[in-house]
Design a protein that fits this description.
Blueprint lengths: L6 H16 L4 H30 L2 H12 L4 H19 L1 H18 L5 H13 L9 H10 L3 H27 L18 H18 L6 H18 L11 H19 L2 H6 L8 H17 L2 H8 L6 H13 L9 H12 L6 H27 L3
Length: about 400
């Protein structure tokens, strides 16, 4: 990774530290922020280590090879299986996991099967964003919202199940309409690779089988994630020490996120909430929910979904309004490349695979998806909760 790629994260972290040192971010507000966000960041680091090591053990490759076999030579069926993989990965392991680890394996699967890779690549990134509503672990914004709502994973899913379903079905329908000709063909048998270390593969698979239910058990998610990371680190020290590297730690997201937390909290301490109150609407009626979700989607595409959520969170003063904000900042970042970190990570992976993305077409397709998906998801939330 080049030094240049660290400039923005380092700059954001420096800006946050400067706000704290100059008093723009008051110390009591920083302490309250740290109490809330350190567990979230610990989860992010632990899950990044877990997914990197599980991928190195070969689990994602094995899963995609099984998908190729289950597809029975039909491209459409294979694509549906990829939809399922991207959805499950996003819901249980987070959108960044789908962007970073699922994207390369499904794109390579398409390339080896002589299928156009674009439908598979776009499916991965759209669902990385739009399938990230159901559980707290699906998205960093969800973890912050769960902390504010004090909901269990089941309670969180109970609030957001209807818009989460819309966030999956509508983009999948649009992708099928756009690529139905590419998805109508057939592909030949795919080679099966032998795992480098079966003990490591089976052990990593066992860790994941135990981890997934633990993440939705109601136990604070950082604890099972940290335990899984510790077990996997022990396994790799035993079986494949050379695979461990410092780049497994998500330094850039960690620096960027920490800096954003501090900068936005400093802005709140200096009048940001009062400024946004005039344009965010109020109440739980359908028009107000649409207004807040639309503002969240617009802000996410303008700056990034995390600062958009942090800026607007104080104005989401009810569970339904907070859910509407999550709809905007989770389902909305499909237009600009910087709207979510997952999209930037996804593009880095595609560049290494020599898959070209035309950002103009990406933006137009994403805009069409957002215009349809976000309002329908808000309506689903409104109907399911009986709000307003």
């Amino acid at each position: 990774m080049s030094l240049k790629s660290y400039l923005l994260p380092a700059g954001m972290l420096a800006a946050g530290c400067a706000a704290l040192l100059t008093g723009l971010l008051p110390w009591p507000a920083f302490q309250e922020l740290a109490d809330r966000t350190v567990p979230v960041l610990a989860f992010v680091v632990a899950m990044s280590l877990v997914t990197e090591m599980v991928d190195d053990a070969g689990l994602f490759r094995v899963v995609t090879e099984r998908l190729a076999a289950l597809g029975r030579g039909r491209v459409f069926l294979l694509w549906l299986l990829v939809v399922g993989l991207a959805t499950v990965s996003t819901v249980f392991l987070s959108l960044d996991t789908t962007a970073v680890l699922v994207t390369p394996v499904v794109v390579l699967l398409a390339v080896h099967a002589r299928i156009p890779p674009l439908p598979f690549a776009l499916t991965a990134i759209w669902l990385a964003n739009t399938a990230s509503l159901l559980l707290p672990v699906s998205n960093l914004t969800n973890l912050l919202a769960q902390d504010r709502l004090s909901l269990s994973p089941a309670g969180f899913a109970g609030l957001l199940w209807a818009p989460a379903l819309v966030g999956i079905l509508v983009p999948v329908g649009l992708l099928w309409l756009a690529f139905r000709k590419d998805l109508a063909g057939r592909y030949g048998p795919q080679p099966v690779h032998q795992p480098r270390d079966k003990v490591l593969l089976y052990s990593a698979s066992g860790v994941m089988v135990l981890l997934l239910p633990a993440l939705v058990s109601g136990v604070p998610v950082q604890f099972p994630a940290m335990a899984a990371a510790a077990v996997l680190l022990g396994l790799f020290l035993w079986r494949r020490r050379s695979a461990l590297r410092w780049s497994m730690v998500p330094w850039r997201p960690l620096m960027l996120t920490s800096g954003l937390f501090m900068v936005v909290e400093a802005l709140h301490a200096n009048g940001l909430t009062r400024f946004l109150a005039g344009i965010a609407g109020s109440g739980d009626g359908l028009p107000a929910l649409l207004q807040l979700a639309g503002l969240g989607a617009g802000a996410a595409n303008a700056v990034n979904n995390l600062p958009a959520y942090l800026a607007l969170e104080p104005l989401a003063d009810s569970p339904v309004r907070l859910a509407a904000l999550l709809i905007g900042v989770n389902l909305g970042p499909l237009v600009t490349p910087w709207a979510s970190l997952a999209t930037l990570l996804w593009h880095e992976r595609l560049r290494t695979l020599n898959v070209e993305i035309r950002w103009g077409g990406f933006a137009l397709a994403g805009l069409a998806a957002v215009v349809l998906t976000v309002p329908l998801a808000v309506v689903a939330l409104w109907l399911a909760t009986g709000a307003g």
